[in-house]
Write a structure and sequence with these properties.
This protein is an alpha+beta fold and 153 residues long. 37% of the residues lie in helices and 18% in strands. It contains five helices and three strands. Strands 1-2-3 form a three-stranded antiparallel beta sheet. A hairpin with a 2-residue loop joins β2 and β3. α2 packs across α5 and α4 crosses α5.
């Protein structure tokens, strides 16, 4: 049985949703033909998330993630990956903590905010570092994957 820490606040229904996404993540795996792949780490707790997005015409056509870590980080990534297809790149770039908490259905304690936000950070950093514009154009015509750890040279 997975036990959520005291930084996890929420009623039973939302706890079940988070545990379900943690135990049975959606949209997990590699995404062939991704516009970008970006990895983020939370060195404080060891969580890691790698997001891959396929963008078309300024919108997210598909999203996948891979990762390991606590229930909050993995469930948040699963919920985020489900919510991204169809969204405009500009909308994704504007997402904030409140939208992640809405996806989770809870607010988390200060110790778990980074866990809940790690997937969104990976997505937003991936968009920024890939040169993708809100219109879906790619700066410099480059398309590809960025190395793990956010080092883009």
């Amino acid at each position: 049985m997975t036990i959520l820490d005291p930084g996890f606040a929420g009623d039973g229904l939302y706890r079940e949703l988070i545990l379900d996404h943690y135990k049975h993540p959606r949209k997990q795996g590699k995404l062939e033909g991704a516009t970008f792949t970006h990895r983020e780490l939370n060195p404080l707790c060891g969580d890691e998330i790698t997001f891959s997005l396929l963008l078309r015409d300024g919108r997210v056509a598909d999203a996948r993630f891979q990762g390991k870590g606590c229930a909050i980080s993995q469930a948040a990534a699963s919920l985020l990956a489900e919510s991204l297809p169809g969204r405009a790149v500009a909308e994704v770039q504007q997402m904030q903590r409140a939208q992640m908490f809405d996806l989770l259905g809870i607010s988390v304690g200060p110790a778990r905010v980074k866990c809940a936000m790690l997937g969104l950070v990976a997505v937003k950093q991936g968009i920024s570092s890939s040169g993708v514009q809100a219109t879906g154009d790619q700066a410099g015509g480059s398309r590809g994957q960025h190395p793990p750890g956010g080092e883009h040279g």
